[in-house]
Write a structure and sequence with these properties.
This protein is mostly helical.
C-alpha cells in the first residue's frame, strides 16, 4: 500500500494532467451541439464538387427562413380583425338617458310636450346608433380601409361586417346634431346635445386577445415544406452550381440526414467520434508543451490556465451557436492568442488558437470560411499585438484585426455571390463588435493574474516603476545597490533584446534582484560611503553568511510585498550556487591547517532555469566586477567578462536555463559594448 502511495506521490503531476485532460475533453464534448454532421460541404453559388447526388430516401423540401418569415408576415397583415359586441351597453345607455329626463322634469320648468319631445328624439338617436353599432375610439384606426371585412363576436356567434357600416365618434356627433335641427326651442337643442353626449358609449371594441389567438393559430398551422423528393431522384450533377431550388433541396436533405443520424441508436457512436476529435486536439497541445515548452508543461498551474482558456472560448462560441448562429462572428476569439502571448509567447498562442478554431470549425456553419477567417485573424493578432503596456498598441492591433476580418469576409462573399449586391453588411457590424469586445483582453489579463498568479507585461511595467514602495526604499536605504540594479537592468534588457528573450521581464527582475540588501546595506561595498567596512570586525564565515543571506531575505521581503513568483525567481537564482570566493580564501588563510567547508561559503541556489535568469546572473556579476577595474580599457573589460562568464559555465550555472553557446556569446558582446560605453574616456577639460 505504501508503495502505491509513493508512486502516486511521485507521479502526481502526470496524474493531474491526465485528470485535467479527461475533464476538459468531457466538458467540451458535453457543450458541443447535439446533432449529426452532413457529409457534403456546400454553399450558395459554389460548384458541386462531388459525384452526381441522388436522393438516398424520401424527404420533404423545407422552406427557407425567409419564406417562412414572409408567410408569417402576410398572416399578420391580412388576418381578419375581431371585434366584440357588448349588448349590455345599449340597455345601460337607455336607462341612463331616461334617468336624465326624469332629473330635468324635477328641476327644470319644461312643459310635458317638451319633455316628451326630448325623450322621443333622444331614444330615436340612441336606437339608430346601437342598431348599427358604435366603435370605440381606439378601434377606429385598426383597419387600413373602411371597406375591410371584420368579424363581430356576439357571445359565441361570429358574423362578418364591412367596417364602414359602424358608427365612428365623428359620425355619432353628426347624427346627434342633425337630429335636433327641427327642434324650435334653443333650450331643447342644447339639452338634447348635452344629454346624448353624456350618456352615449361605444358598444363595439377591438378584441386584441382573440385576434392574436387566431393569428397564432394560423402561424402554428403554417406548412414548413413545399414539395417532396422521392428516393433515387437526381438532386444535382457534378459541376452544377448550387443555387435556387437545388440549394433548397440540398439544405432539406442536410437537415433530414442530420436528424436521422442523431438517433438513439447512433448517439453513443457520435459521442465517441466527438471525443476522439477533441482528445486528439488536446493531446497535440500537451505534446507541444512537453516538446517545446517543457517549463510550462511541468507547471500544472500554467497547463490548467491554458486548458481553461481553450474551454472558455469553445463554451462561449457554442452558447452563441445555440442561441443564434447569425451572431457567430461576434465572439472575440482573438482574445485567446492575445492572452497567451501576454503570459507566455507568440508561438504557443498561435498553436493553441489554431487548435481551438479547428475544434470549433466542426460545429459551425460554413466551417471552411470560419476556420480561414479566424486563423488569419489569429496570425495577425500574433504579429501585431506586442507591448500591451503601451495603450496605443492594442488599439492599433485590434483595428488591424477587425480590418482583416472585414476584408477576408468581403472576399468570401464575392467568391460566393459573384458580385457585391448580395453581401450581408450586418456581418461588418458584427466584426466591429468583435473588435470592441477584444479590448476586454486587458480586463481578462488582469483577472487571470490574480486568479492564476501569472505575470503580464502590464504588471511588469507597473513593477519596474522606480517609484514603487520597494524600489523607493532600496534607493533611500541602499543607494549604491539601487544604482547597481539600474545598471544591471539596462545591461540585461539590452542582452535580452539581442537574443529574443523577454526584455521586460528580465529588466524588472534585475531591478528587484538585490532588494535583500535593504536590511543590511552597509555590509555591501557599493553602499560604504564612509570608508568603514563592518566586515573587518567579523569572521569570514559570518561575513559570508551575511552576504549570502541577502538572497533569502530578499525572497522573504518580496513575498511579504506580494511580488509575483516570476520576479522572485530572479532574486533566488541571480547568484545560483556560486561561491563567496573572497571570504572563502580569507578563511583558508586564517585556518591553513583546517579543511574549510566550501559549502558554508556558497549561495543556496537554485541555479538559473530560464534564459532571462541566466542573463541576469551574467550581467549582475559583470557589472559588479567591472567596478574593481582601476583602469577600465576595452581589453581589460573584455578579458574580465570572458573570465567571469567562463567561470559560471565551468560551475554548471547554466545547465538548466535552456540557453545556447551562441546566445551566451551574443550576451557577452552586448555586456562588453555597454560597459565600454560606460567607462569610455572623456575629453579632459581645462581648469
Amino acid at each position: 500500500m505504501s508503495n502505491i502511495v509513493n508512486k502516486l506521490y511521485q507521479n502526481n503531476t502526470i496524474i493531474y494532467k491526465v485528470i485535467l485532460f479527461l475533464v476538459a475533453t468531457t466538458a467540451i464534448v458535453y457543450f458541443f451541439p447535439k446533432g449529426g454532421q452532413f457529409k457534403y460541404d456546400f454553399s450558395n453559388g459554389q460548384l458541386w464538387k462531388y459525384d452526381n447526388l441522388y436522393a438516398p430516401f424520401d424527404f420533404a423540401i423545407q422552406k427557407n427562413e425567409e419564406e417562412v418569415t414572409s408567410e408569417k408576415q402576410k398572416i399578420k397583415e391580412y388576418s381578419k380583425l375581431y371585434f366584440v359586441h357588448d349588448s349590455e351597453v345599449k340597455n345601460s345607455v337607455f336607462k341612463a338617458y331616461e334617468n336624465k329626463i326624469l332629473l330635468i322634469k324635477e328641476t327644470d320648468s319644461l312643459s310635458i310636450n317638451q319633455l316628451q319631445r326630448l325623450s322621443a328624439v333622444g331614444q330615436f338617436v340612441l336606437d339608430t346608433i346601437y342598431q348599427k353599432g358604435f366603435l370605440e375610439v381606439a378601434s377606429q384606426d385598426r383597419v387600413s380601409s373602411e371597406n375591410e371585412i371584420v368579424a363581430i363576436r356576439k357571445g359565441n356567434e361570429v358574423e362578418d361586417f364591412i367596417f364602414k357600416s359602424f358608427f365612428t365618434s365623428k359620425e355619432v356627433l353628426e347624427l346627434i346634431r342633425n337630429s335636433f335641427q327641427t327642434e324650435q326651442s334653443l333650450y331643447g337643442k342644447k339639452a338634447l346635445l348635452d344629454l346624448l353626449s353624456e350618456v352615449v358609449k361605444p358598444n363595439i371594441y377591438f378584441d386584441t386577445e382573440y385576434t392574436q389567438k387566431v393569428i397564432d393559430n394560423e402561424i402554428k398551422n403554417i406548412s414548413y415544406t413545399k414539395g417532396k423528393v422521392a428516393s433515387g431522384k437526381l438532386i444535382i450533377l457534378k459541376g452544377d452550381t448550387v443555387e435556387g431550388k437545388k440549394l433548397a433541396i440540398l439544405n432539406s436533405l442536410k437537415s433530414e440526414s442530420e436528424s436521422q443520424v442523431w438517433t438513439a441508436s447512433n448517439y453513443n457512436w457520435i459521442l465517441f467520434g466527438y471525443t476522439i476529435l477533441v482528445s486528439l486536439a488536446l493531446l497535440m497541445l500537451l505534446l507541444f508543451l512537453k516538446k517545446y515548452r517543457s517549463d510550462i508543461f511541468d507547471d500544472n498551474n500554467k497547463v490548467t490556465f491554458i486548458f481553461f482558456n481553450v474551454f472558455s472560448m469553445i463554451f462561449i462560441q457554442t452558447l452563441v451557436i445555440k442561441y443564434n448562429s447569425d451572431y457567430l462572428y461576434v465572439v472575440p476569439l482573438s482574445i485567446l492568442p492575445i492572452v497567451l502571448k501576454a503570459f507566455f509567447d507568440a508561438r504557443l498562442g498561435l498553436f493553441t488558437h489554431v487548435l481551438t478554431v479547428l475544434l470549433l470549425g466542426y460545429i459551425v456553419p460554413d466551417s471552411f470560411e470560419f476556420i480561414y477567417l479566424h486563423i488569419i485573424a489569429g496570425i495577425v493578432t500574433i504579429l501585431t499585438v506586442s507591448e500591451l503596456y503601451k495603450r496605443a498598441n492594442l488599439f492599433i492591433s485590434v483595428a488591424q484585426i477587425t480590418l482583416i476580418y472585414m476584408v477576408t469576409y468581403f472576399a468570401f462573399s464575392i467568391i460566393k455571390e459573384g458580385n457585391i449586391s448580395q453581401i450581408n453588411w450586418t456581418y461588418f457590424m458584427l466584426f466591429a463588435a468583435n473588435g470592441l469586445l477584444s479590448f476586454l483582453s486587458i480586463i481578462v489579463i488582469y483577472m487571470y493574474e490574480k486568479l492564476f498568479g501569472l505575470v503580464s507585461d502590464v504588471t511588469l511595467l507597473e513593477l519596474s516603476n522606480t517609484n514603487t514602495k520597494l524600489l523607493r526604499e532600496l534607493n533611500e536605504k541602499a543607494p549604491g545597490t539601487f544604482q547597481h540594479s539600474m545598471q544591471v537592468a539596462n545591461l540585461a534588457e539590452a542582452a535580452a533584446n539581442e537574443i529574443g528573450a523577454n526584455s521586460m521581464l528580465v529588466r524588472t527582475g534585475a531591478l528587484y534582484h538585490d532588494i535583500g540588501k535593504i536590511l543590511n546595506p552597509m555590509y555591501f561595498i557599493e553602499n560604504q560611503s564612509t570608508g568603514v567596512n563592518p566586515h573587518n570586525d567579523l569572521s569570514p564565515r559570518d561575513s559570508s553568511k551575511i552576504i549570502t543571506d541577502h538572497v533569502i531575505k530578499g525572497v522573504e521581503l518580496a513575498k511579504k510585498n506580494k511580488l509575483p513568483d516570476r520576479i522572485i525567481d530572479f532574486i533566488r537564482t541571480h547568484h545560483g550556487t556560486s561561491l563567496t570566493y573572497y571570504f572563502y580564501r580569507k578563511e583558508q588563510e586564517l585556518n591553513p591547517d583546517t579543511k574549510v567547508d566550501i559549502d558554508a561559503f556558497k549561495y543556496q541556489g537554485p541555479i538559473p532555469f530560464s534564459k532571462e535568469t541566466a542573463i541576469l546572473m551574467m550581467c549582475d556579476a559583470a557589472e559588479a566586477a567591472s567596478k574593481s577595474l582601476t583602469q577600465p580599457t576595452a581589453l581589460s573589460i573584455s578579458s574580465l567578462i570572458d573570465k567571469i562568464i567562463a567561470k559560471q559555465m565551468t560551475d554548471n550555472q547554466f545547465i538548466n536555463s535552456n540557453i545556447t553557446f551562441r546566445e551566451i556569446e551574443t550576451i557577452k558582446k552586448v555586456i562588453k559594448k555597454k560597459l565600454m560605453n560606460i567607462y569610455h574616456l572623456r575629453v579632459e577639460y581645462p581648469e
